[in-house]
């Protein structure tokens, strides 16, 4: 972790962070970071109107219809997404990440996911990387536990440094995930990390056996091509800064429509109702609950 980020992390919590703490390496720092960013959705702070924020698991539960909830975490600093010229390097079409860059990014995300879930839920989950993709200088890693309920965390890294993560674990009333039809896809909408300057929207999900590709029509960036591999997909894109109030008013998560590309090269639309398992009424009704964390 570079010196600037190291110092910024110290400044986030000067009252309890010892002056000699090596934030980038000391195991106490990892525990402290997990405690600082962990959010209990039943005891979340009031919504914020500026500064770094992550929508909590309470918000994800509202978007997911209660199927998954329980953890939300982020490492977000002002300017962390780069904004301006840095975000201009983002691409709507992803590129492959391989070799040491992929291995290092996956290990960083796995370490973060395991530490955060252990500190927030008291459980150790068997996370494994399922999708790794690049867009400009950013690498996105999607990890899950492969269970029928799918605990998952997505990490965003820039030039090898972790700049944000978010995810969820199954709540006590969660139902097992249903199988995905061969020519369709399943996902949740609404995952967003935001600073006062920029936000990042992330969609992760599963695809059927006949699906070779997937495209999302987004409100902010038009057509965004997802990475599809091993029965999973993921995509992300930058957007304007947001607030909890705006997100609750728009359960569609900035997505207009979804198209899958089948193995035979044909294309077909997947309705947001089919994608999310929600009704039209739910997709057009303001969500409740959740919060935004500074």
Please explain how this structure is put together.
- This protein has 294 residues and is α+β, with helices and mostly antiparallel strands.
- The chain has eight helices and 16 strands.
- It has helices at 3-12, 27-37, 57-63, 84-87, 99-121, 244-248, 272-276, 280-283; strands spanning 53-55, 95-96, 128-135, 138-144, 152-158, 161-168, 185-187, 191-194, 199-207, 211-218, 222-225, 227-229, 232-239, 255-262, 267-270, 292-293.
- Strands 1, 7, 8, 9, 12, 13 and 16 form a seven-stranded antiparallel β-sheet that branches. A five-stranded antiparallel β-sheet has the order 2-3-4-5-6, with helices on one face.
- Helix 2 crosses helix 5.
- It is globular and about 35 Å long.
- Mean pLDDT is 75; it is low at 1-75 and 289-294.
């Amino acid at each position: 972790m570079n010196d600037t980020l190291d110092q910024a992390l110290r400044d986030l919590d000067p009252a309890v962070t010892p002056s000699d703490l090596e934030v980038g390496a000391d195991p106490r720092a990892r525990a402290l970071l997990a405690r600082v960013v962990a959010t209990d959705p039943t005891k979340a702070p009031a919504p914020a109107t500026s500064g770094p924020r992550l929508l909590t698991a309470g918000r994800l539960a509202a978007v997911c219809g209660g199927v998954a909830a329980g953890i939300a975490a982020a490492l977000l600093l002002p300017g962390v997404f780069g904004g301006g010229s840095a975000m201009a390097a983002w691409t709507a079409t992803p590129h492959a990440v391989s070799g040491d860059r992929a291995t290092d990014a996956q290990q960083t995300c796995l370490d973060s996911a395991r530490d955060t879930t252990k500190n927030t839920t008291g459980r150790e989950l068997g996370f494994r990387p399922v999708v790794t993709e690049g867009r400009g200088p950013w690498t996105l890693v999607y990890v899950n536990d492969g269970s029928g309920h799918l605990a998952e965390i997505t990490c965003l890294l820039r030039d090898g440094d972790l700049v944000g993560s978010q995810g969820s674990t199954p709540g006590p009333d969660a139902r097992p995930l249903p199988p995905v039809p061969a020519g369709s896809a399943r996902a949740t909408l609404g995952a967003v990390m935001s600073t006062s300057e920029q936000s990042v929207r992330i969609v992760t999900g599963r695809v059927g056996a006949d699906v070779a590709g997937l495209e999302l029509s987004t409100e902010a960036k038009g057509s965004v091509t997802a990475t599809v591999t091993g029965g999973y997909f993921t995509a992300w894109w930058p957007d304007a800064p947001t607030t909890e109030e705006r997100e609750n008013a728009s359960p569609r998560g900035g997505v207009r429509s979804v198209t899958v590309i089948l193995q035979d090269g044909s294309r077909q639309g997947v309705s947001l109702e089919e994608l999310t398992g929600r009704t039209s009424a739910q997709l057009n009704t303001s969500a409740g609950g959740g919060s935004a964390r500074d």
